[in-house]
Amino acid sequence: MALIVQKFGGTSVGSVERIAQVAEKIKACKAEGHDLIIVVSAMSGETNRLIGLAREISAQPDPREMDVILSTGEQVTIGLLAMKLQSIGVPAISYTGAQVRIETDSSFGKARIQHIDEGRLRAELDAGKVVIVAGFQGMDEHGNITTLGRGGSDTTGVALAAALKADECQIYTDVDGVYTTDPRVVEGARRLEKITFEEMLEMASLGSKVLQIRAVEFAGKYNVPLRVLHSFKEGPGTLITLEEDLSMEQPVISGIAFNRDEAKLTIRGVPDTPGVAYKILGPVSAANIEIDMIVQNVSQDQTTDFTFTVNRIDQRRTEEILNKVAAEIGAREVAGDSAIAKVSIVGVGMRSHAGVASKMFEALSLHGINILMISTSEIKISVVIDEKYLELAVRTLHSAFELDAPEQDADQI
Amino acid sequence: MALIVQKFGGTSVGSVERIAQVAEKIKACKAEGHDLIIVVSAMSGETNRLIGLAREISAQPDPREMDVILSTGEQVTIGLLAMKLQSIGVPAISYTGAQVRIETDSSFGKARIQHIDEGRLRAELDAGKVVIVAGFQGMDEHGNITTLGRGGSDTTGVALAAALKADECQIYTDVDGVYTTDPRVVEGARRLEKITFEEMLEMASLGSKVLQIRAVEFAGKYNVPLRVLHSFKEGPGTLITLEEDLSMEQPVISGIAFNRDEAKLTIRGVPDTPGVAYKILGPVSAANIEIDMIVQNVSQDQTTDFTFTVNRIDQRRTEEILNKVAAEIGAREVAGDSAIAKVSIVGVGMRSHAGVASKMFEALSLHGINILMISTSEIKISVVIDEKYLELAVRTLHSAFELDAPEQDADQI
């Protein structure tokens, strides 16, 4: 018998019929003897409806009052799911964030969980009940209702699992696990049995939007085993854990992530003096534009080329800033390019394997794919390439690192 | 400067536009220097939408979970109204029932308020804020969310006014006050300046559905001056107070109430023995059918006729019960009649005036209206008549008791 936290997102509880399906799933799991805490989001569309109402009322809605309104979405779902479970013979009870007492700071709309009172939940579990908790919400020390921001329900699930020292936190979603890469791009993409938090963070932040980054970080910090599963299909999903799996041969690369969200900006002929990087990037950061990759080319004749990427929606604004900066520091020109893509190989295995980068570059060059930028971390190598080669690059790397291999038998919980 | 509690119902806050209108009204009142507590209902239609969702989930929704769901309706309104007030420069803050701490018993769906913590509200008022409180809801001693039942927002308003010793509790609605009778029936019906709680209770329970009976009882018990006003029209409304107004000549009759909701049932030829009333009415009550008027006719030759009224929707069921009872006690026959109406004259003035009843009966007989049943209390006389005479009877009595007279100057708050 295990203590399991299960989180169901807005799509999984998006209609009365789906709530009924989720209830049956919970009933089956409860029948296996597990203690269950269920975290749910607002029914899909509800949060947007509430935001719409608030925006009609005020262009700049007060954040505290916004949270009062938004938190009702999850509150409706917990009541409906608890009712449904009871109606099929499963003892269940709902808790809002405030009732659990999920204490957060007072940053309305993006509050951080500070403490969870586990006493009441523990008592309900001991009484044999399935406890349904509203995701995404809490209360601050003054009793104000707070929300954790979009995707906050994943964080609620992980935080509850950490507080209760649950055996596993299961995130039910519309995919049946984390894949080696996007199956829409590579037919041979396969579901990963296991992945580490570190790898998942790299995969997630690079565009595999299965889990909220914040929830993965949280799970890693408190070592909460996290499992991604499909809401309405059977299967073991993907387990995300702290430990690298030493019992099986660790593959060098776990997955390939990619995105097309970025644009590349180059400022050429920059006088190569100390502090010039700050002079260029300072004004960009000051405009709240997030910078991803940065490359400064080898300096030639006292000048250098400076290249970085930003989100495409920020490209125009960034160019305007750079044009001003270029004039100030005496740079030659500013060039922008949005027809790029970023491809990354991710794997804790690359730590102990030399030659991963060269293997990657070789595979790409064999297909004539030119690398525009390179960035590396301990468990990740990213390259920026021409957007038109994206699918080819992903398929090439998927094969080169032997990710197409058939999968082993799946673990069962 | 006064402390005023204002309650706005679902229609008054039924759209973003209406919420904006209510906000302007509050702003104007605040500008006069008053301290304001505002109680709001769910936006019209929202409570029914939520009930519909719950009914889809379960034919017998759990009452605790029903309250979790229903309480979200008011929670959305308080957030929206607080936002709107802030956006027009009025400092405002929202409170759910649980946040105020409106403590109730644990009768989900029909909870009774037991205690209100006034500390936080007082602090917000002292800080110059308009406090928006969710009507209809509270929490029990275990922290469970409760609701007070339909119309509970009136009760919340009165209870807050009592706890804070407010100068007045204003109920904003879709009529501009309490009328001598329904203006759709009598053209000369006029708005009452003042009415006592006692009279209001008789008027309300007889079908003038301006205020919730429970709220009026509550206001009477704690002597909270209650004023009924129109949400979107100017005017002094009707003040409901404990005291009969001795400074002006008290009219004998304050108003005429009526309804068509009842059916009359007669069981004839009942052997006139002790305990026979209980034998007849016991099974009816046991079936949860509410009985209103009861008349037992003078006994003739050891038998009696027994007549009473129930709500029309219960007529069929009551007849079935009576047919069984008639067989058991040896009564002659059972007859039902739903083509009836009840007309009542109400007024504390009748206590000190003889001849009110005879004046009423005379006025009706002059128009050939036959009285089928009579029932009296200290401040009310009700008659049951043939439904087709209803309008004629109301108009006749309205004139006979001089209620058509033009109104005096209106008091201002």
Automatic annotation (TrEMBL), chains A, B:
Its EC number is 2.7.2.4. Keywords: Amino-acid biosynthesis, ATP-binding, Kinase, Lysine biosynthesis, Nucleotide-binding, Transferase. Pathway: Amino-acid biosynthesis; L-methionine biosynthesis via de novo pathway; L-homoserine from L-aspartate: step 1/3; Amino-acid biosynthesis; L-threonine biosynthesis; L-threonine from L-aspartate: step 1/5; Amino-acid biosynthesis; L-lysine biosynthesis via DAP pathway; (S)-tetrahydrodipicolinate from L-aspartate: step 1/4. One of its GO terms (molecular function) is aspartate kinase activity. ATP binds at residues 7-10, 173-174, 179, 184, 209-210. InterPro entries: AceGlu_kinase-like_sf, ACT-like_dom_sf, ACT_Aspartokinase, ACT_dom, AKii-LysC-BS, Asp/Glu/Uridylate_kinase, Asp_kin_monofn, Asp_kinase. The keyword Metal-binding does not apply. Substrate binds at residues 47, 74. Belongs to the aspartokinase family. This is Aspartokinase.
